[in-house]
Amino acid sequence: MALDGWQPTKLIDADAEAGSFRVHRDAYRSDEVFEREKALIFNKCWLYLGHQTELKKKGDFFARRVGGRDIIFNLDKNGKVGAHYNTCTHRASKICREHSGNARTFTCPYHGWVFNSEGQLSSQNAKTGYKEGINDDGHLNLKAVERLEEYRGFWFVNFNPKAISLYDYLDDGRDAIDALMDQTEAQQVILSGEHTYSINANYKLLCENSYDGYHLFPVHASYFDYLRDQMAGTPAADLIDATIADYSSNGAVRGLGNGHAILDSYVPTGRPVAQWLPSMGASVKPEIEAKYARLVERFGEERANYIATTQKNLVIFPNLVINDILSVTVRVIEPEAKDRIRVTAWAMGPTDESEELRAMRLDNFVSFLGPAGFGSPDDIEMLEICQTAAAHTPVEWSEISKGFGPAEDHCKVTGAPDDEVQMQAYWTMWDRVMSGEVTLEVE
Hints:
Layout: E1 12-15, E2 20-24, H1 26-29, H2 31-40, E3 47-51, E4 60-66, E5 69-75, E6 81-85, E7 100-102, E8 105-107, E9 114-116, E10 121-123, E11 147-151, E12 154-158, H3 166-170, H4 173-181, E13 188-190, E14 195-199, H5 203-210, H6 216-219, H7 221-231, H8 239-246, E15 252-257, E16 260-265, H9 285-299, H10 301-309, E17 311-316, E18 320-324, E19 328-337, E20 340-350, H11 355-367, H12 376-392, E21 397-399, E22 414-415, H13 421-435
Antiparallel strand pairs: 1-2, 2-21, 3-12, 4-5, 4-7, 5-6, 8-9, 9-10, 11-12, 13-20, 14-20, 15-16, 15-22, 16-17, 17-18, 18-19, 19-20
């Protein structure tokens, strides 16, 4: 589909004086928009590939789809992280067909070409027919992804060699990642296993949902009933209703630059990092309180309180979500079509927590944001009925105006936890990239 010269319908209509921020629904349902997104957003933004702690030993690898491209993420024999396109340089076959494993070499299943862990061609499985030195310039080695960089163990790729650095791209999102990684003096690691599931909806609907405090109580009422039952008969029995009453005045949504944004909120679920509630049981109270005391020693009361007690839902533009809530979920939203996404989610936790807290963390990971938990099925239903209605009704605009008003830069704004300024920040950046106003390239 040709993109040169394409003039889309105006997709963002923002009138700060009138307090109106609207998104045209073609942004969710148009094939042309989706093709342009692939060219301008997923070809030029930094995209999450994986975490350092997934690669435990030399030779460990994962085959992943990132931004519509097949990539091998591995630790080579020298202990260096690599990212290569998962295609043989001979006749295009995918060379790595396993989801993950450990290998000294990768062998193409079609004609037997062999590549070492650094991506170099080591054998063409033939004694004759090739001129000596045909690969002296390395053009038959696996092609490395154009850019590969990391921040605090989170590895990202970028298909644009001229892209700004990952450090600059993350902008104020770095602070939210720091708050997660600083929970422990040991190491935050990706825990074994993953959730992978599909949703019949546009990827941006899940991005919006992931830090939407406005939908929390209407959509997840059954979860709050469950929490009430858990806390019944304890000193925290009235905590849920008090939280609902005060929700809009505790916490914030914040734009972090370059389309990234976060929801900081206070929901009384307890947090293994350092927020104990009676429903968690008395046996883990000393460990959690000791964790909090150590955070205060390291960072001071204000920062420790933010790290320990604030639930943080972070979206890194365009499709990485880190839910640092009752457990930690790292979630990638991979668009497969304008109305279909594949979601992959991993649990993260510190290496220095007790078995009891680790079990609690994993239970929380499964029971709320897992595909069969309290939260995700409710959200998936909402996203799919939004997508269906957007595609099958003539209504053109979605109103995403809660908290909208004049600002110097709508990519860096703050609102109440049930406002929508975080989505306005995302869509503002989306519009700037899609229109060519922002290239995310080094000048």
